[in-house]
Amino acid sequence: MKLRRLFIGTLVRLGLVGVLIWPALAVAAPAYDLVILHGRVMDPETGRDQIANLGIRKGRIAVISTRPLAGAQTIEAKGLVVAPGFIDLHSHAQYAFGYDQQARDGVTTALELEAGVYPVAPFYAVRAGHTRINYGASVGLQSIRVKLKTGIEDPPTATAPVNHWADILPRKAEWAESALSPDEMTKEQALFRQGIADGGLGLGVLYEYLPGLGRDELYALMKVAAPLKAPLFVHARAAAAADPSHLLDPIQELVADAAATGAAVHVCHIGSKGLGSVGELLDLMDGARARGVDITTEVYPYDAGSTAIGSALFNPGWQAHIGGSFGDIEWPPTGERLTEQSFAQHRADTPGAMVILHTIPDPSVTLAVAHPGVMIASDAVPYVDGKGHPRGTGTFARVLGVYVRQKHALTLMEALGKMTVLPAKRLEAIAPAMRRKGRVQVGADADLAVFDPATVADRATYRHPTEPSQGIAYVLVGGIAVVDHGALQSKVFPGKGVRGGS
Ligand SMILES: [Zn+2]
Question: Which residue has the higher pLDDT, 247 or 299?
Fold first, then answer.
């Protein structure tokens, strides 16, 4: 007795009694802000695949249990999969409509990493409190080159696309076409360092759009990037010729530089870069990774690409580089295929207009989507008058509907891994906060996609590219529903910036 009194007395002195009895009292009131009941919880990192209840408190997953749970709000998820929200490493659609289209596709974090931005700080500042999903960007090499050569900076607008493609991808611009002097290269590296200090998530390299970018320039940037743990997100340079073996060249350069410098490299959209050689390129990268080179890649699940008609991608000789012809180019406003004449006309009149390029072999897309380690990323581009590529609207549901359910090209768990924990891990070295994303685990951020595996599907097409995906019932960002019963919630803005160093 004496001992017990002493023990209790000690607890009171230490102020611990309240802590010990608090859990018992808490049962009476809802313990959680939100509970998701009876869903099929799927966590690709641990392999957990279990009917369970989930309790969310203060924006994080507080419990996953087969016991009954009570919350201030309840989502009934019987028959639905409860998965981590999808993380898109490649979204140029960094504006309100772009975020909303992606939210309805299950995306909770959309990042502009391939093109990037500069300066970085205003990109984050203008979005704070104004987005439905999480956002972030790398430091944009092309924006740095524009600043170096012209003094012009990216406009920090939250409602329009951050990259004005008409301005950012012109042909015959000095900042794109010309080499940098040694002095300019030193300044470029300083601006890159500044962008990382301001929260940039790596370096975005639109190599093919910057014909003046030297191999020495990129190699020097990788030496700067490696100790900063800043990955490079690279749209590889143009291949040398139509000969399929030449498609290896641009990726071999990246493998070599990554091996020599220790920099992490992420190769963007392997489908449109690899074309008929996707298998060889994946083999090349797998081999490099097995030998310690930090190189990864991604794919969007479509057999057509999209870019600005005035861009350097269409400089003379483009047919050989991308294995296409004028008739493979679709003009979105009308759906017509172009001819040499109409191509020249549009390229002169509206160089920033986006076209759709039907050049990627379908078997290459399936191969990449199913290949272990290849991430799913949309390459979403802003819509102009509701026209554009459907990938900004339907990428993730399309993988789940077409490649998992219809084609059986990969399992549902494998597909989810490619959309969640793999992209999270890609960023963890530079952004440790990503360790809390891409998982359905206790302590993780409550960014979740809740969908019906029997009906989830993309509906966006080349003709109707903004038709939202179906079968995605709930999308939560930090525990707040931005999609509820399949409907976008227009008054909530729980999105937060994902920054390097955070
Ligand atoms: Zn690209």
Answer: 299
